[in-house]
Amino acid sequence: MNFNVFNNWAVWGVIDDDDDEQKSSSKQEKEQQQQPKQIESEKNKETTIIVPDIEMKDEALQVTTKKEEDILKETNDKILEIVLGSDDEDSNKPIDWVAEMDKKENDIKEEIKEEMNMDKEIEQPKNPFIEPKCVNPEKTLHVSIIKRRSMPLIDYLCQLRNCVLKEMHVLFYNIDARREIIHHLQNFVHLRTSHLPTSRNFNVRCNDLTVQSACNIPAMGGYLGITVRGYYYVKHNIKLRHPYLPCVIEFGGGHHRSYYPLEVLCVSEKNKQMKGF
Positions of the region Disordered (predicted)? Predict the structure, then answer.
């Protein structure tokens, strides 16, 4: 037998346990030594990563704020150019604020003058039924109503007696003044109603004036139980504005009397002119 074969096998087939243990222990020691170094390196990496993140954020905020400020400045400049009406040629020139404000003021003044001139050119029609003004009593009063054809009785009496509407209440308590008014209404003018439609108005004959006012005189002989003021409100839906003035009396057949408040009557010409007295 060849024993050399077994010797070779013993050399190549047997493993020493001592060598393996030494190698494993050396590896563990190396790993233990490397672990704290790795931890420190990781910590350093984390710190180095966190610090630049904060700095980058601050820089980004500063950049964004600068951009926003630049945009706001540009928009403000554009708005000022639009408001002041600056041209493209003068956009690069500095703006003279005083001159621009003077131009605006002058434009506004010119517009106001034009509006005033337009108002003067347009003639507004005058109201013929305005409360009359006092006339010089030394001159005789001549009231011409040819152009207007008719006018309210109250306005006519104010012009005729040269007084204001408030004085008419006292005027009718004077007996002589009452007689003169009745005589004038009977002989110089025509009286006609004005509270009905134009086709239904009719002439009225002034026979007398009442002593009491329209708010106290019983209407229709008193059997209705209402005053002249209430009758015109119920029958004609007219609320009298001067219920404390007297009424014109027109005599009918028998004892019949019709009462007409002064504000529902108008005056028309009987001759060419109405003459005062």
Answer: 14-49
- Pair 270, 190: CB distance under 8 Å: yes
Half-sphere exposure of 138 (CA within 13 A, CB side): 0
Q: Note the pLDDT of residue 191.
A: 92
Read off the pLDDT of residues 203-260 as tens digits, 9 standing for 90 and up.
998 888 888 888 888 887 767 788 898 889 888 888 988 888 899 988 887 778 889 9
Helices (H), the chain: 4-13, 17-84, 97-121, 153-161, 165-171, 175-187, 228-235
Contact criterion met (CB below 8 Å) for 182 and 209: yes
For residues 69 and 205, what is the distance between their CA atoms, to the nearest angstrom? 89
For residues 83, 89, 93, 96, the Cα torsion angle rounded to the nearest 10 degrees is -40
Q: Residue written as tokens 């050396």? A: 26
Q: Record the tokens describing residue 70, joined without a space.
A: 């630049």
The b/e string for 45-68 (b: 16+ C-beta within 10 A; e otherwise) is eeeeeeeeeeeeeeeeeeeeeeee
Structure tokens at 171: 């005027």
